[in-house]
Amino acid sequence: MDKDNNKNNEQIFKGQVDWKLKLKAILHDPPYKAEDIEKHKEQAYELINILVTDNKIDEEINTADRIASAQSRIIVKPDLKGDQKKKTQFEKSNRVVLEEAKFIDIFTGNEYKVELPDSQKLKTLFKTLSQKINEFNDLEYQEKLKLIFLFLWRFYPEIFKGIGKSPADTRAPNHSIYDHLVQTSAITSALKYNNQNTVPSFLLFTIGPIQSFISKSRKTSDLWAGSYMLSYLIWKTMEPLVDHFGPDIIIFPNLLNQPLVDKYLFDKYFKNLVAKNENFKDSDNQIFKEWYEKCEILTGTDKENKESKKQKEIIELEEKLTIANFPNRFLAIIPYDISISIKCEEIFKNQLINLAEKVYSKIGIQSKQLKEKIKNQLLSYFQVYWVVMPWGKDNKGKDVKSVLNDYEKIVSSDNELYQTVKEIINHPYYSSANVGSAYSLLLELTEKLLGSRKSVRDFIQSEQRGIKCNLCGEFDALHTLSNEKLCGVCLTKRFFPKVIQEELGLSEEIRFPSTSEMATIETKLTLNDDVKQELRDKFYNLRNKLLSSISVPKLKGDKLYDIDGQFLMEETYAQQYLEREYGINFNDKLIENLEEIENFLKENNINPTRYYAILHMDGDNMGKWLKGEFNPKIKDTIHDKVINALLNFSQGEDKQKIQKILCSKHPVSPSIHQAFSRRLSTFSLNIVRKIVEEKHYGKLVYSGGDDVLAFLPVGKALNCAYELQKEFKNLLGNKASMSAGILFVHHKYPLYLALKRVEQAEKDAKKIYQRNSFCVVFLTHSGTERKFGSNWDLMDDFLDLICKFKNEEISSNFPYQFLEIVEKLYTTDSEKNSNSLQEVLRIELKRLFFRKEGSNELRNYFENKILNFFDKFYISNIMDFCNLLIIARKIAQELKSF
Q1: Which of 211, 297, 688, 822 could cysteine-pair with 703, CB 3.0–4.6 Å?
Q2: Average pLDDT score over residue span 244-261
Q3: In whole angstroms, what is the distance from residue 500 CA to residue 490 CA?
Q4: Based on the domain organization, do 114 and 231 belong to the same domain?
Q5: How far apart are CA 143 and CA 145, in angstroms?
Q6: Residue 2 in contact with residue 143, Cβ under 8 Å?
Q7: How many CB atoms lie within 10 A of CB 895?
């Protein structure tokens, strides 16, 4: 264990965390609690005793348990007016035994059978774990407990695969026992910190700017660097906080199974455990065997062994490590101590300073002034905002009235959320209501405060005197790199791939395929190996004078993988171009070599499209999702037996109130937050990467949960976008949707302008086409633009239309001929409602479509598809219909090139 680093974190935050308390908190319920509710406390004591020889549940844990339960379990009680007999009957009637138990997916509504782990196997594992960690004589007691806690936080879901669908409470089976245990341990460390009683609070921390920083990119690698740098900086800000308090305190984003978090845990904590206990590898316990192998993968133990079965997993991990996955903010539960938040801001600024020093070292110039300027420009460019919101005023979590009062004053008392929470508080299932029931109100108050803080802009005077940066135009240029004059911020972005390679210990340099390469992927796929080899041989002399390049991950191992796509285009071999771009001095032999390659391309009909696609997708209404506006009704998240009991034991006005509660939306809870974030992580790290890179031969730039940016070949982009939105919906249910901007653009078009255009297309999909939609833009080399958009229901038909143009079933002149008619007749907005004009255009459409005699199949296609397209777009925007036809024809034309 890195003791020096631990001391640094203690100095940063000053206070001490009681890891024994946190460990007992994460064990206060056994993972098989649903098996026997009556005995679950005794079972918990038994597990705790194995690890800490202490079966006492501290008061802080009991308080944290009550708060965590109230946060996620909307179980109310009817007003039984002190009738003890009825209370006993009610509690008995709503008890759900294991045979009746189920787990409800709060997003999709799907119900699952409860799976419980083997209690005896768990006890055996705990005994082995305790024994192995106690062999670390150089660790202090608290450090040993911390190691056990981190192991359980990370591996509980892997040790018992069903723990994610094992309910914390069979009456409200909408959140898992794992989530409840983690939330309880997080609250526990916020209730007692540095041996003093404290009040739990939210810390909401954010950095910026985002879009402007990412989009100001001239190269594809700049684009990746900008997005990954923000993701990495937010993690490095969280890391000391996580190291000090534990990863359980971060509510959003989800940290479980995050590659950067795994790397931190395995490098700092678990690597030594593996090194000193190789007998884990040969353990009779299958769990430890699997865990040891995972340690080898995550720590890169077998990285040098090329024949290792783990090589594939190691490579896959490195690929995941380089996905920009974290958002630019995090939400944490901390003790109410403003100094913690101030230190987080200091940590972020220190990360910028460290980054400036590393970039400076890469430049290779000895100049303290240059280093200071890079640092100052970074510090003045990035903004930090944070707020801290205490959960009431007392340490027991009972001060829920002050939360209601604050919300009423700052937000409103006249909304469904406030009224629902108020009624839940007035019908407490447990002895008394607590701040856990007001979690959603506290969260909204925190967001309001952050919005207010952002409105007060920080201003740092930055003196600018020299030539402005060629890339961003904001700061003075500090250094010339490849004929570009770049400022400190853009220099950092340019050198960041090399810096992060060293930081993460990656086996390969991070590089991105060029836009020219993206345009030629599908052509490379169609060439046979003999042609590829011959081209590679002819290219050898020239290749030695060029910088090596890469293609998309899926083409790794291909004979043309490291030959950039532009060298499949004849125009690239102009002598003046190569001299200007690459500084090549040509002799007679090289000139002859150029001519030989050009002739080879002609003879083999190698003439790829010059266009590629940029895909920008974004989840719809993400703010509303996080606020809980799409949450299910409370009655859909609790067991039927509980609903029946509530209605049977209530009457009159009280029954009406309970019915209203049951029909209200489930307020936001940490369980919902974490489950939502976990699904976004799954989508981002597993689903998106596989669909973009493995299935559609693209290159993922970033995937921040619901936000995706990728480069794709022309023929793959539409199907890729369509598949991604389907998977997003599958993961979060029918209420979820994504919108997409899809830009087809020439490979020589300036990247930063293309990024602006695809970003606008994505916004148009949301605003003009009303979300759950896509907007396609085709931008020609001459600058002519065509655009149309629709909801996703149209995509299948649009893809079919492209195929018909490609197969020449439809005349390629037809779209332009119809556009000419429309431009002549459709001159004013008032005419769009004219039935006579609509009929005239329908007649013309049919006339132009059937210039030649068509088959019955084609006639049916016209009647059922083309006319449907026309009618759909006529009222909204007839030009969208014309552009749909023209874009389909243009894409088909480009697809014919391979």
Answers
A1: 688
A2: 94
A3: 15
A4: no
A5: 5
A6: no
A7: 17
Contact yes or no for 757/793 (Cβ under 8 A): no
Q: What angle do CA 292, 296, 301 make, to 5 degrees?
A: 145
Quick: pLDDT tens for 804-815. 999 999 999 999
Q: 186: closest CA among 175, 202, 197?
A: 202
Residues of the chain by 3-state class (helix, strand, coil), percent to 5: 60, 10, 30
Parent domain of 193: 13-73+96-197
List Cβ neighbours of 388 (8 Å cut-off, separation of 6 or more). 201, 202, 203, 334, 336, 338, 341
Q: Among all chains, which residue has been given the structure tokens 């007392």?
A: 394
pLDDT at 491: 94
583 in the same domain as 473: no
Tokens of 741: 């901007």
Q: What is the pLDDT, as a whole number, of residue 522?
A: 97
57 pLDDT band (50/70/90 cuts)? confident
Average pLDDT over residues 531-547: 85
**708/727 Cα distance (integer angstroms):** 13
Residue 377 phi/psi, 5-degree rounding, is -70, -40
Mean pLDDT of the chain: 89
- In this prediction, residue 3 has a pLDDT band, given cuts at 50, 70 and 90, of very low
- On whether both 117 and 237 belong to a single domain, the answer is no
Residue 676, both tokens: 């939502």
Q: Are residues 203 and 191 in the same domain?
A: no
| CB 228 within 8 Å of CB 500 | yes
Check: CB of residue 239 under 8 Å from CB of residue 146: no
| Spatial distance between the Cα atoms of 334 and 200, rounded to a whole number of angstroms | 6
For residues 481 and 495, give the distance between their C-alpha atoms in angstroms, rounded to a whole number. 10
Query: Would you say residue 355 lies in a domain?
Result: yes
Q: Does residue 109 share a domain with residue 51?
A: yes
**Euclidean distance between CA atoms 529 and 527, whole angstroms:** 7
Q: What is the pTM of this model?
A: 0.91
- Assigned token pair, 238: 């969280």
Q: What are the residues whose beta carbons fall under 8 Å from the beta carbon of 823, sequence distance 6 or more?
A: none
pLDDT of 354 over the 90 cut: yes
CB–CB of 206/39 below 8 Å? no
Cα distance between residue 4 and residue 654, in whole Å: 60
List Cβ neighbours of 84 (8 Å cut-off, separation of 6 or more): none
CA dihedral 146, 150, 153, 158 (to 10 degrees): -140
Distance CA 861, CA 882 (A): 17
